[in-house]
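[[Per-residue structure]]
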Amino acid sequence: MSKFDYKKVEADLHDSGARHPDEIYSYKSEKAIRGYMKENDLNPDKYYKPDGKSSRSKSGSGSGSGTEGCYLTSACVTARGLSDQCEELQTLRSFRDGYLSEQPGGPAEIEQYYATAPKIVEAINQLPDAMEIWNRIYEELVKPCVRMIHENRNVQAYQLYKSYAVQLAHSYLTTGG
Protein backbone atom coordinates (compact mmCIF):
# COMPACT_ATOMS: atom_id res chain seq x y z
CA MET A 1 0.00 0.00 0.00
CA SER A 2 2.98 2.32 -0.48
CA LYS A 3 1.08 4.32 -3.09
CA PHE A 4 -1.77 5.07 -0.71
CA ASP A 5 -1.78 8.56 0.84
CA TYR A 6 -2.52 7.72 4.47
CA LYS A 7 -1.84 11.28 5.68
CA LYS A 8 -4.43 12.80 3.33
CA VAL A 9 -6.95 10.15 4.38
CA GLU A 10 -6.30 10.85 8.04
CA ALA A 11 -6.81 14.60 7.47
CA ASP A 12 -10.04 14.04 5.52
CA LEU A 13 -11.31 11.56 8.11
CA HIS A 14 -10.61 14.14 10.81
CA ASP A 15 -12.43 16.82 8.81
CA SER A 16 -15.42 14.52 8.30
CA GLY A 17 -15.73 13.94 12.03
CA ALA A 18 -14.46 10.36 12.20
CA ARG A 19 -13.87 9.31 15.81
CA HIS A 20 -10.34 7.94 15.33
CA PRO A 21 -8.93 9.18 12.02
CA ASP A 22 -5.52 7.71 12.80
CA GLU A 23 -7.11 4.26 12.77
CA ILE A 24 -6.56 4.19 8.99
CA TYR A 25 -2.90 3.29 9.60
CA SER A 26 -3.91 -0.02 11.15
CA TYR A 27 -5.52 -1.19 7.90
CA LYS A 28 -3.03 -2.87 5.58
CA SER A 29 -5.21 -4.73 3.10
CA GLU A 30 -6.97 -3.00 0.23
CA LYS A 31 -10.29 -4.55 1.20
CA ALA A 32 -10.03 -3.35 4.81
CA ILE A 33 -9.10 0.19 3.77
CA ARG A 34 -11.97 0.38 1.28
CA GLY A 35 -14.47 -0.85 3.85
CA TYR A 36 -13.31 1.58 6.51
CA MET A 37 -13.35 4.51 4.12
CA LYS A 38 -16.79 3.68 2.75
CA GLU A 39 -18.10 3.53 6.31
CA ASN A 40 -16.85 7.11 6.65
CA ASP A 41 -18.26 8.26 3.28
CA LEU A 42 -14.88 8.70 1.57
CA ASN A 43 -13.90 7.47 -1.89
CA PRO A 44 -10.75 5.33 -1.50
CA ASP A 45 -9.52 5.95 -5.06
CA LYS A 46 -9.08 9.63 -4.32
CA TYR A 47 -6.14 8.76 -2.04
CA TYR A 48 -3.90 6.80 -4.34
CA LYS A 49 -0.72 8.56 -5.29
CA PRO A 50 0.01 8.40 -8.99
CA ASP A 51 2.71 5.93 -9.99
CA GLY A 52 5.74 8.11 -10.59
CA LYS A 53 6.97 5.73 -13.28
CA SER A 54 3.80 5.82 -15.35
CA SER A 55 3.19 8.67 -17.71
CA ARG A 56 -0.38 7.87 -18.59
CA SER A 57 -0.87 10.93 -20.69
CA LYS A 58 1.90 9.86 -23.06
CA SER A 59 -0.40 8.42 -25.67
CA GLY A 60 -3.91 9.20 -26.81
CA SER A 61 -5.92 12.24 -25.97
CA GLY A 62 -5.93 11.27 -22.33
CA SER A 63 -8.16 14.03 -20.99
CA GLY A 64 -11.82 13.52 -20.26
CA SER A 65 -13.29 10.37 -18.73
CA GLY A 66 -10.41 8.07 -19.52
CA THR A 67 -12.30 5.94 -22.02
CA GLU A 68 -10.10 7.28 -24.82
CA GLY A 69 -7.22 5.00 -23.92
CA CYS A 70 -8.30 2.26 -21.55
CA TYR A 71 -10.20 -0.76 -22.78
CA LEU A 72 -11.16 -1.73 -19.24
CA THR A 73 -12.72 1.68 -18.69
CA SER A 74 -14.35 1.58 -22.12
CA ALA A 75 -15.91 -1.80 -21.33
CA CYS A 76 -17.42 -0.42 -18.11
CA VAL A 77 -18.30 3.14 -19.08
CA THR A 78 -19.14 2.83 -22.78
CA ALA A 79 -20.81 -0.57 -22.82
CA ARG A 80 -22.39 -0.66 -19.40
CA GLY A 81 -22.96 3.00 -18.67
CA LEU A 82 -21.14 2.72 -15.36
CA SER A 83 -19.34 5.57 -13.66
CA ASP A 84 -15.61 6.01 -14.08
CA GLN A 85 -15.53 5.46 -10.31
CA CYS A 86 -17.60 2.25 -10.36
CA GLU A 87 -16.66 -0.68 -8.13
CA GLU A 88 -15.24 -2.64 -11.06
CA LEU A 89 -12.81 0.09 -12.10
CA GLN A 90 -11.87 0.90 -8.52
CA THR A 91 -11.09 -2.77 -7.95
CA LEU A 92 -9.02 -3.05 -11.14
CA ARG A 93 -7.10 0.17 -10.41
CA SER A 94 -6.33 -1.01 -6.88
CA PHE A 95 -5.17 -4.34 -8.29
CA ARG A 96 -2.91 -2.51 -10.75
CA ASP A 97 -1.51 -0.11 -8.14
CA GLY A 98 -1.16 -2.77 -5.47
CA TYR A 99 -0.67 -6.36 -6.52
CA LEU A 100 0.50 -5.89 -10.10
CA SER A 101 2.87 -2.98 -9.44
CA GLU A 102 4.62 -5.05 -6.77
CA GLN A 103 5.19 -8.12 -8.97
CA PRO A 104 8.48 -8.71 -10.79
CA GLY A 105 7.97 -7.07 -14.16
CA GLY A 106 4.71 -5.50 -12.97
CA PRO A 107 5.67 -1.87 -13.60
CA ALA A 108 6.81 -2.80 -17.13
CA GLU A 109 3.53 -4.62 -17.65
CA ILE A 110 1.62 -1.50 -16.62
CA GLU A 111 3.68 0.63 -19.01
CA GLN A 112 2.95 -1.87 -21.79
CA TYR A 113 -0.77 -1.51 -21.10
CA TYR A 114 -0.58 2.28 -21.42
CA ALA A 115 1.39 1.91 -24.65
CA THR A 116 -1.03 -0.51 -26.35
CA ALA A 117 -4.45 0.09 -24.78
CA PRO A 118 -5.17 3.42 -26.54
CA LYS A 119 -4.46 1.79 -29.91
CA ILE A 120 -6.77 -1.11 -29.08
CA VAL A 121 -9.53 1.28 -27.97
CA GLU A 122 -9.16 3.30 -31.16
CA ALA A 123 -9.30 0.17 -33.34
CA ILE A 124 -12.38 -1.19 -31.57
CA ASN A 125 -14.20 2.14 -31.67
CA GLN A 126 -13.87 2.20 -35.45
CA LEU A 127 -15.71 -1.10 -35.84
CA PRO A 128 -19.46 -1.31 -36.50
CA ASP A 129 -19.86 -3.86 -33.69
CA ALA A 130 -17.82 -1.88 -31.14
CA MET A 131 -20.59 -1.97 -28.52
CA GLU A 132 -20.78 -5.78 -28.77
CA ILE A 133 -17.02 -5.99 -28.33
CA TRP A 134 -17.08 -3.71 -25.26
CA ASN A 135 -19.86 -5.82 -23.75
CA ARG A 136 -17.90 -9.00 -24.46
CA ILE A 137 -14.76 -7.53 -22.83
CA TYR A 138 -16.84 -6.61 -19.80
CA GLU A 139 -18.35 -10.11 -19.51
CA GLU A 140 -15.22 -12.10 -20.36
CA LEU A 141 -12.51 -9.97 -18.73
CA VAL A 142 -13.71 -7.26 -16.36
CA LYS A 143 -16.39 -9.20 -14.50
CA PRO A 144 -14.36 -12.40 -13.94
CA CYS A 145 -11.19 -10.49 -12.97
CA VAL A 146 -13.07 -8.39 -10.43
CA ARG A 147 -14.66 -11.53 -8.97
CA MET A 148 -11.26 -13.25 -8.70
CA ILE A 149 -9.68 -10.18 -7.08
CA HIS A 150 -12.49 -10.05 -4.50
CA GLU A 151 -11.86 -13.75 -3.84
CA ASN A 152 -8.13 -13.01 -3.36
CA ARG A 153 -7.28 -15.09 -6.43
CA ASN A 154 -4.84 -12.50 -7.72
CA VAL A 155 -2.68 -14.92 -9.69
CA GLN A 156 -5.68 -16.21 -11.63
CA ALA A 157 -6.97 -12.67 -12.21
CA TYR A 158 -3.58 -11.66 -13.57
CA GLN A 159 -3.36 -14.74 -15.80
CA LEU A 160 -6.79 -14.04 -17.28
CA TYR A 161 -5.94 -10.37 -17.81
CA LYS A 162 -2.58 -11.21 -19.43
CA SER A 163 -3.96 -13.80 -21.84
CA TYR A 164 -6.88 -11.53 -22.75
CA ALA A 165 -4.55 -8.56 -23.30
CA VAL A 166 -2.42 -10.64 -25.66
CA GLN A 167 -5.55 -11.75 -27.51
CA LEU A 168 -6.81 -8.16 -27.85
CA ALA A 169 -3.45 -6.94 -29.11
CA HIS A 170 -3.32 -9.76 -31.64
CA SER A 171 -6.89 -9.17 -32.79
CA TYR A 172 -6.84 -5.38 -33.02
CA LEU A 173 -3.24 -4.29 -33.46
CA THR A 174 -2.02 -6.69 -36.09
CA THR A 175 -4.93 -6.18 -38.51
CA GLY A 176 -4.25 -2.54 -39.31
CA GLY A 177 -0.52 -2.64 -39.77
